[in-house]
Amino acid sequence: MTSTVHRTCPLCEAxxxxxxxxxxGGHVTGVRGDKDDPFSKGFICPKGASLGRLDExxxxxxxxxxxxxxxxxxxxxxxxxxxxxxxxDRVADRRSIAVYLGNPNAHTMxxxxxxxxxxxxxxxxxxxxxxxxxxMPKHVASGLMFGHPLAIPVPDLDxxxxxxxxxxxxxxxxxxxxxxxxxPGRLKALRGRGGRLVVVDPRRTRxxxxxxxxxxxxxxxxxxxxxxxxxxxxxxxxxxxxxEVNGLAEVREAxxxxxxxxxxxxxxVPAETITRLARELAGAxxxxxxxxxxxxxxxFGTLAQWLVDVxxxxxxxxxxxxxxxxxxxxxxxxxxxxxxxxxxWRSRVRGLPETNGELPVATLADEIETPGEGQVRFLLTVAxxxxxxxxxxxxxxxxxxxxxxMVSVDPYLNExxxxxxxxxxxxxxxxxxxxxxxxxxxxxxxxxxYSPPLLPLDERPSEAQILARLAMIASGLEGDLxxxxxxxxxxxxxxxxxxxxxxxxxxxxxxxxEGETGSERRLDLMLRLGPYGEWAGKGDLSLRKLLDxxxxxxxxxxxxxxxEVLKTASGLVELAPPQxxxxxxxxxxxxxxxxxxxxxxxxxxxxxxxxxxxNVGPLVGGSNTCTLQIHPEDAARLGLDGEAVVRSAKGQVxxxxxxxxxxxxxxxxxxxxxGHAGSAQNVAAEHAGVNVNTLTDxxxxxxxSGNAVFNGVPVTISPTGVIIAH
Length: 726
Ligand SMILES: Nc1nc2c(c(=O)[nH]1)N[C@H]1C(S)=C(S)[C@@H](COP(=O)(O)OP(=O)(O)OC[C@H]3O[C@@H](n4cnc5c(=O)[nH]c(N)nc54)[C@H](O)[C@@H]3O)O[C@H]1N2
Ligand SMILES: Nc1nc2c(c(=O)[nH]1)N[C@H]1C(S)=C(S)[C@@H](COP(=O)(O)OP(=O)(O)OC[C@H]3O[C@@H](n4cnc5c(=O)[nH]c(N)nc54)[C@H](O)[C@@H]3O)O[C@H]1N2
Ligand code: SF4
Ligand SMILES: [Mo]
Hints:
By secondary structure, the protein is of the alpha/beta class. Among the domains are: 136-330, Dimethylsulfoxide Reductase, domain 2 (3-Layer(aba) Sandwich), CATH 3.40.228; 596-719, Barwin-like endoglucanases (Beta Barrel). The chain starts with a strand and ends in a 7-residue tail after the last strand. Bound molecules: ligand MGD (2 copies), iron/sulfur cluster (SF4) and molybdenum atom. Keywords: 4Fe-4S, Iron, Iron-sulfur, Metal-binding, Oxidoreductase.
């Protein structure tokens, strides 16, 4: 007997609906795209198709592990939690605790619902996450321009006439900060309806090949290119904002310093191309500018992200169909908020400003290694592998060895968790409920889908229960965390004018909530209080309704809603926030800079996902390998054949060379997430590769956001065996 079940793929930001077949033993015997999902319509990629293999990977941990010296032993859950409590009890000063939250927290209900109360319970400001190795520049730019770090406009992919895409490669990544299942199909449709796609990337990627035009750019220089376009819009009187904005004159003044000719030298993009792109953007019936990881993890990441939306504003495309629009997610809660600010506190050692309640992961090693009051001695990682993913990860590898105590919530014993004293593994994916709290806020159509757990939990706690129990241990409180959170949310909403439940009785409302678990009841509450909700919104959405619609619900095309989204003190879009104008001076100061001879950038492969899917046989091998892409002319000039040694200010790796004319001369590329030599994951160890973050530099950051810089890292390259004297 087999059964057919449906659930959302939790592996990337595309949120595809999957149809799984399971046998009696709960083993996955087949995975297809869910044709009845109104958003993904049957799309699936090789990772989604391997979900069963990943879920039943024999190297996944099934029981907690406790480390004794070099040896690991399996432990029961009570014993493991007792060990964590003993470790925490030895912490004299809560300031010496740090937390690192990795990327899958954006894909689990546990991460969305329990990370915040856990951090609160730990009582520390040493909060680090993959966000400062990823998208923090976008949050800071949005916070300063629109007043909320999550007010992130997405390109209206299905309706736009013109898409300028920088530093993104959705044919491999399937999209990011732009949730769009079948991104490739949507781009083809854009071209099919006569639209134009222009891709700016130091590599001619598969996305670039699909586009109408590919523009090579020197890594790290997107802010210059975008300013050159802004300059042209003003110089040719093409700027036509459709909204009243603050700071238009300041942006016009600032842009004077970035004429296309000056910018061309710095970016490698010809001046004629820059002026033409400006005219095309201004002239298109509708257009959107979209820029992702290649532009975020760069030295001027926040300025680039800001300029993306400056362009969307100046071309009249912000908040209109076909332009850059704000999604309306079903769990958005229209509560009050404090005005957005960065730098409410600073990191102890380098004095780097807090952003969104976090400190830059680029300074985690400093906080662990530097003695003094508040030195980090206790670390909790949840779903993260910073040894492979953070800048200069090798330094963290060493720093973690010096901690007093470390706890990791993770299904694998890997490069990071091997330093833990206790590893707490979440259950199988199919034992977990799934709702995309974070990603549906960036969706190109409004949509909601809930997938209940497909298999019962047996004796293991859910990840939600793991995090909740850690929070209770850390707070010393007893009771039901979910009940506490629900009551608090209800109380706040009942006190908020216009919340839909203003003045109503908390206990009575609490009894109306449905759900098998605390997580489900919290989801139910958020849906009911959300914009389509049966309590506060204009609809009848609730958990029940999502359970009755297992393929998901289409909530319509994006609609203009700038007024609702804006949370600035002025009530207007702030086009020239002072913090960013200050950073423009830094940008100006570097305009004439000569580029290093060779710089390193990253890349992603469709069959990979950061550091943790290299243990699934069908996904590794073929072209998904860790090679150094280099232009054939550079390879010949440097006498490279076979393997090469790549050196940076921070370290060196020896890696196989892959000459290809798809990459610009003067640029080389290595994917991240590799470096599994000696791993306890058997397949990954056979396809080890090298850790690109041996080479990246934690001392260079994007100043306004503290974000790590992975693109544009200066390196030197030599044939294997040749030693360069420094
Ligand atoms: N050089 C370079 N470095 C980069 C990047 C780059 O482009 N270049 N990209 C950066 C980006 S965008 C990101 S997001 C970061 C990612 O950085 P991290 O989040 O630190 O790294 P991941 O490889 O995603 O690690 C995910 C971890 O979560 C575990 N995991 C998987 N599923 C679950 C789950 O359901 N629950 C729990 N508890 N654990 C789970 C995995 O075993 C793994 O240990 O890397 C960054 N690093
Ligand atoms: N298959 C797969 N999918 C993934 C992931 C994965 O590891 N594998 N990771 C997920 C995560 S965590 C994220 S954040 C997203 C990221 O999603 P994307 O942003 O689409 O990421 P990439 O595919 O790395 O594309 C970044 C592109 O930027 C280019 N680039 C590098 N430097 C520069 C530069 O200075 N300027 C410009 N203009 N371009 C530059 C690179 O050549 C690359 O083609 O993908 C997610 N999806
Ligand atoms: S594109 Fe992303 S969400 Fe869709 S099947 Fe692949 S990994 Fe899963
Ligand atoms: Mo990411």
